[in-house]
Amino acid sequence: MKFTIALLAGDGIGPEVINEAVKVSDAIAKKFNHEITWTPALTGACAIDAVGVPYPDETHEICMKADAVLFGAIGHPKYDNDPSAPVRPEQGLLLMRKKLGLFANVRPTFTFPSLIDNSPLKRERIEGTDLVFLRELTGGIYFGEKGRKDDGETAFDTCTYNRSEVQRLAKKGFELAMTRTKKLCCVDKANVMETSRLWRETVQAMQKDYPEVEVSYEFVDAVAMRLVQWPNSYDVLITENLFGDILTDEASVISGSMGLMPSASVGEHTSLYEPIHGSYPQATGLNIANPLATVLSAAMMFEDAFGLKEEAEAIRAVVNKSLEQGIVTEDLVAKGSKAYKTSEVGDWLVANL
């Protein structure tokens, strides 16, 4: 098979972790007789520096023509520390989601047997955790009307959803639940927010079409609590943009490191695969960043975008092998053990495929 993949390395450690995912993907392609054409493109702070905008039209065209997008990270301290900056890297991320129609963010959270004690939570609370969040990505408060009034003394952000936005996200949640344990949790704040009441009534109306799926409805604050108490009680969770942003970052630390969790953003035109961590500017150029989340995002890409489950399983297997044998970067290294460089971990994965 032949694939064209848009390669958006982005900022900070993005280029470093993307490089290792490319090496592993190329090794898998060679092993299984596939051909990958990589098409690099700018986004984020590096795009602002180069052309003045965080998501250039040229980048969008490359993404639209690609079979999938592999994405690193965006963000830079010079924008983080300047609230008045007129153009920001994050604007590029939101624009990319909107223009590519990436309405569903798929964020799995699972544990690795060899790292179970790295988690800040007790072993008995997290063993067996294997859950997936589906976060709505193109609506809600991030895309609603916003501004200032009263001479700048009052600020507002408006949360807006329409029924069709909820339906298309919930449909993916129901479909995913059917392939797993047939449990679905709708996360909202329906006791307070009108948008959440729309979410709840819409999902309730869809239940009849999926009679095998057991659906629960929970308030976002209760879910935030239960994620650190009994995360293994959840399977598939669906929620709106802001709630999903917060809860998925909370869930990410269950495994023991944000450098381990992959994600996908799927939608109308193409799908994008990325690690859940940020650009980690403090580590830029030091060759110490953990590349495994990006490598596992590539595994999601092979399985979900291309339908190549065996190739994806081969990547996951070699990642598990590297963790068991301690071939890891400094964020995961055991006391007294060697910390491997980002590129060394990638080289080891390629050599062991």
From TrEMBL:
Gene3D superfamilies: Isopropylmalate Dehydrogenase. Substrate binds at residues 97, 107, 135, 221. The keyword Transferase does not apply. It is found in: Cytoplasm. GO terms for cellular component: cytosol. Its main location: cytoplasm. Mg(2+) binds at residues 221, 245, 249. It catalyses: (2R,3S)-3-isopropylmalate + NAD(+) = 4-methyl-2-oxopentanoate + CO2 + NADH. InterPro entries: IsoCit/isopropylmalate_DH_CS, IsoPropMal-DH-like_dom, Isopropylmalate_DH. One of its GO terms (molecular function) is magnesium ion binding. Keywords: Amino-acid biosynthesis, Branched-chain amino acid biosynthesis, Cytoplasm, Leucine biosynthesis, Magnesium, Manganese, Metal-binding, NAD, Oxidoreductase. The record marks 142, 189 as: Important for catalysis. GO terms for biological process: L-leucine biosynthetic process. Binds 1 Mg(2+) or Mn(2+) ion per subunit. Transmembrane segments: none annotated. Its cofactor is Mn(2+); Mg(2+). Residues 4-349 form the Isopropylmalate dehydrogenase-like domain. Its EC number is 1.1.1.85. Pathway: Amino-acid biosynthesis; L-leucine biosynthesis; L-leucine from 3-methyl-2-oxobutanoate: step 3/4. Homodimer. HAMAP family: LeuB_type1. NCBIfam families: leuB (TIGR00169). Belongs to the isocitrate and isopropylmalate dehydrogenases family. LeuB type 1 subfamily. Catalyzes the oxidation of 3-carboxy-2-hydroxy-4-methylpentanoate (3-isopropylmalate) to 3-carboxy-4-methyl-2-oxopentanoate. The product decarboxylates to 4-methyl-2 oxopentanoate. This is 3-isopropylmalate dehydrogenase. It comes from Flavobacterium sinopsychrotolerans. The lineage of its organism: Bacteria, Pseudomonadati, Bacteroidota, Flavobacteriia, Flavobacteriales. The gene is leuB.
